[in-house]
Each structure stands twice: as C-alpha cells, then as structure tokens.
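Why does residue order matter? Because the sequence determines the fold. Keep that principle in mind as you read this record.
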Amino acid sequence: MDRNTWTGLGLMALIWVGYFWYASPTEEELAAQAAEVARQDSLAAAAIAEQQAQASFERAEPAPLDSAALAAADAATRAAFGPLAPAAAREGTDGTVRLRGNLVDVAFGVRGGLPQRAVLQDGSTQYGSGEPIELWDAERSRMDLSFDLAAAGRVHLSDLAFQTVGQTDTSITLEARGDQGVALRWHHALHGYELHSELSWMNLAGLASDEARLIWQAVGHANEKG
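Structure:
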C-alpha cells in the first residue's frame, strides 16, 4: 500500500476513536442513568406492593371479634349501632394512624378512619416560620361520613373504632368490626399528592342505606405572604 492509503487508514482510525470518545457517557451521565434505573425499580416495587395490598384488601374477610369488644357492646349501644355496636363500644381507640409518603404525610383518625391532618413533605414551608405546610387546620376542621342503618338510625363513622389490618409504604387498610361478619373497611392509597380512598361495606346488604353523606368542614391556614 502506498503512503496515501496508510494516511487514509490512519485518518479513519482517528475518526472512529474520536467518535467513540465523543459518544461515550461521562461519569456524571452514568451516575444519572444508574439513579434513574434505581428510581424506576423503586416505583415498580411500590406499584407491585400496592397491587398486592389491593388484592389482599379485596379478598380479605373481617377478622373475628375479641370477647372484650363483644362484652362492651351494651344494650343501649346495640340499639344505636345495631351489628356495628362492638366497633362503637371499643375502648382506648382515640388517636391517629399515619401514612407517610415522600410528598405528603396523612394522619387518619382511629375513630372514623378518615383523614384528620395532611402535611406536605416536598420541602414547601409556611411563610415566616419555615414549618412544613399543613393543608388544613386540624384543630378547627372536621371530616366525617354518615349513613342510615336499619333498626338503628343514622350512624356516623366517627362513632366507630377502626383497626389497622394492613399497611405498605403507600397504603393503609382500616377496619371497623361488628357482629356476624359485619364490617366497614377503608383502603387508603397515596399516589403522589393524591389520596385514593375506597370504603367497602361487608355483609351489610339490606341493612345499610345505599346513600352516604360526606361531612367536611375544612379551615385553611394562611400560608402565603400578605
């Protein structure tokens, strides 16, 4: 081969080397790619856990009542709450249970199983104090749900004690247990900033009204300047 041929081959080799050097990702890009893969794996694992929790929630049967709960339901309580009397009579059930997400932290009342407090966890803070933003004033707000129960009358969820029967990183399942397999079951799941809630009526067909009334009196905070 003559000199021109060798020169051409050398130039071609330099072009290939330069192309591969230019196209190869930097250390920062490789680290970003690895972080994105880890994030996608985490999201996929959370989605699978939520699907499993939802499937378990849909298949589950109410757990049997303990003898103390049955004994606590006296005649007056049974007259007011019918088969849900054990849930109303259960003692030591004030307080909240929490579902902590990356963006929002929600506290549910043990009485009622509904959200009582929600605080942002995304870095947003109240003006002037630097404290995380609370979406409403829990002390001056109220959330409840009521429905009619045959032979008992109007029942409010806030009168019923719910127990945690399942929880994942993004969801929680709460249950108020009554007599003879009767139960109310909440399934709350966080999706980003959104809370998806589903209430199931178990073995209450013909006993509970088809309509329910949501009561939400929310008082907000002044979070902005001025």
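The beta strands are 96-100, 104-109, 115-120, 142-149, 153-156, 163-167, 171-177, 183-191, 194-202, 208-217.
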